[in-house]
Amino acid sequence: AQSVTQPDIHITVSEGASLELRCNYSYGATPYLFWYVQSPGQGLQLLLKYFSGDTLVQGIKGFEAEFKRSQSSFNLRKPSVHWSDAAEYFCAVAMDSSYKLIFGSGTRLLVRP
Amino acid sequence: KAGVTQTPRYLIKTRGQQVTLSCSPISGHRSVSWYQQTPGQGLQFLFEYFSETQRNKGNFPGRFSGRQFSNSRSEMNVSTLELGDSALYLCASSLGDRVYEQYFGPGTRLTVT
After folding, report:
1. Which of A1, A19, B25, B61 has the most CB atoms at less than 10 Å from its CB?
2. A105 at the B interface (CB within 8 A)?
3. Per-residue b/e over B65-94, b at no fewer than 16 CB within 10 Å?
4. Which residues 6+ apart lie within 8 Å of B40 measured at CB?
């Protein structure tokens, strides 16, 4: 069965520091990969997606993610974190024709002033 | 273009009652998916509809049901509410063909007392 692992429950970084959030998936083929962000009491906002092609994808708000097939990973990065980035981040995978997303358990990002 | 809208935003119900939640997708999107989000179980897929047909269903009891109308709006119903049904219910829409990125609404917060 497909699964998504986000090994870090919480991450705290200082404002202006770089960020990397980890995501590993379990699936026999290359899935469709997504990162979403959720602010408290809100729905999920799509940050970026990977379907195929260039393994480094750019998203909104200065985020990027790199797909590494050999490591079954899709880590999210940002070179300089802003206080407004404090939120919960979810990695998700989907299979072609499954019509559903499988989410990781999320990583809560705290930003120190 | 307007985003995904969900009504109501908040609901308080009593055990044993039933509830209906509504979702209006982004204009032009024909697929609507529903997810349940709880602190303990995270984000779990309920079901997905496309052109009034359910294409996929998650592992939830039959008390959870849904439907989609010809204008792509969707409703989900939970009968005989249990305390454990307290959650944020998220609706997402997508174009619907194969796998496309899903865009989420703000959610309906259901509290069962």
Report:
1. B25
2. yes
3. bbebeeebbbbbebeebeeebbbbbbbbbb
4. none
B64 touches chain A (CB under 8 A): no
> pLDDT tens, A64-91?
999 999 999 999 999 999 999 999 999 9
pLDDT band at B98 (very low <50, low <70, confident <90, very high): low
Q: What percent of chain B has pLDDT over 70?
A: 97
Q: Cβ contact (<8 Å) for A90 and B43? A: yes
Q: Do A103 and B43 touch (CB under 8 A)?
A: yes
Q: What CA–CA distance (Å, rounded) separates A100 from B88?
A: 18
At A35-64, the pLDDT tens digits run 999 998 889 999 999 988 889 999 999 999
Q: Which residues of B touch A89 (CB under 8 A)?
A: none
